[in-house]
Amino acid sequence: MRVVLAGATGTVGSALVPMLVEAGHSVLGLTRSSGGAAKLTAAGATPVLADVLDEDALLGALNGQRADAVLHEATALTRTPMLHRHLHPTNELRDAGTRNLLRAAELVGATRFVTQSFFLGYGYRDHGDRPVTEDSPFARPDGSPFDVHMRSMRSNEDQVFGTPGIEGISLRYGLFYGPEVSTRKLMDLARKRMMPVTDPSGVTSPIHIDDAAAATVAALERGRAGQAYNIADDHPVGFAEYVRAVASAAGAPAPPRVPAWLLRAVPYLHALMVGTRIRLSNEKAKRELDWAPRFPSCHDGLAALAVRKP
Ligand SMILES: NC(=O)c1ccc[n+]([C@@H]2O[C@H](COP(=O)([O-])OP(=O)(O)OC[C@H]3O[C@@H](n4cnc5c(N)ncnc54)[C@H](OP(=O)(O)O)[C@@H]3O)[C@@H](O)[C@H]2O)c1
Hints:
Rossmann fold; two-stranded parallel ribbon; 11 helices; 42% helix
């Protein structure tokens, strides 16, 4: 297939471009910078310079191109979100960015559209011990400060599933880790003993970035139109256990323990690390996409990272 990839230079995109090329697809990779364009050329993609939030510029840059599919992997999370407002640029990419990319799909004749979504669209709360499947309510505002994020995730999926002539697929990724920026930052903090574990802590559902990229190729090729897929590994973990595993992979001392209430000053992080307990089911992705994580648990994936280090 010929695919337009938004977010081609980002965390998922950087892992995805070589996998797409290896699988025989050709990639038109969007980026806003000449540095991004050089990186894409080196990875075997054709760079297209455009800002997805500028509809005219995006359509102008793609004018005359043909493609079979659009992949929307653009986020604005270079800075780890700690406050709600840190997510606003990403929300805009899920709302206006999706709208513009659907127009781009129409322009280039693409009929498949795979979008990036996020497992915490199920809600930043305690989901209990049962695995959360794709049938659970997703991106439902409930009067909390998270509503603004829920609305953008709702908008993203509604647009992708509701556009006539488009086979829309949404990937609800778990928490990314691997050879990528947020894991590196956590490792650096752990080495400086600045990454605490909270007591009590929440439960999260990680996914190695290479497994997320492999699932994305599988969804492009085999995903059913109108479907959402949870993309997580086989073993949800306590957030404290996750942080300890990151510290161990970094060769850092055991992280200090702090009472959970101390994180209340950083509301988004408190919700992520303490208030949310979520065990994502990946059964549907395994069944329908013929995909399975190469790293079944973050302990495997983080140990592999430790081995890669010089
Ligand atoms: N599920 C998860 O846990 C999850 C999901 C997403 C991100 N994250 C984390 O967030 C951190 C940053 O992720 P990241 O590298 O993907 O994010 P990023 O640095 O924000 O970049 C994301 C990608 O989106 C593109 N992009 C952003 N705004 C754009 C716009 N207006 N027009 C066109 N392209 C645009 C960027 O392209 P150019 O800059 O080349 O233009 C880049 O390719 C990582 O540590 C990652 O793990 C986590």
